[in-house]
Amino acid sequence: MINWKVRFKNRNWVIAFISQIFIIAEFLLSGLHALGITNFQLTDTIKESVLSFVNALFVLLGLLGVVQDPTTKGIGDSEQALDYKEPN
């Protein structure tokens, strides 16, 4: 189980989460257009500008270790972290 209240209080985690949302949105918009579900098309100029910024931000956060939590096994929070009221 993941303690979402504590995660959203962590500024670094929120920044990483938002950058991942941008990547998923681009993937979904491109896929929906390719399938003919929507007429909205991201132009190459828009895609290059936005994705360059988002990818650079995501890479920087990954290098800083913000994206992953090396102190826990798997993708969930430890039992100790589930009891936190504020991020440590």
Describe this entry's structure for a reader.
By secondary structure, the protein is mainly alpha-helical. The protein has a domain at 19-68. It is built from four helices and no strands. The chain has helices spanning 4-9, 11-34, 44-63, 79-82.
- Tell how many strands the DSSP assignment holds: 0
- The average pLDDT value, as a whole number, equals 77
**Main beta-sheet strand count, sense and barrel state:** none
Q: What is the helix tally? A: 4
Q: Distance between termini? A: 18 Å
Note the overall shape.
elongated
Strand content: under 5%
Structural class comes to mainly alpha
Provide the succession of SSEs: HHHH
Give unreliable regions as ranges: none
Helicity level, as a percent range?
55-70%
What Rg, in angstroms, do the CA atoms define? 17 Å
Secondary-structure map with pairings?
Layout: H1 4-9, H2 11-34, H3 44-63, H4 79-82
Helix pairs in contact: 2-3
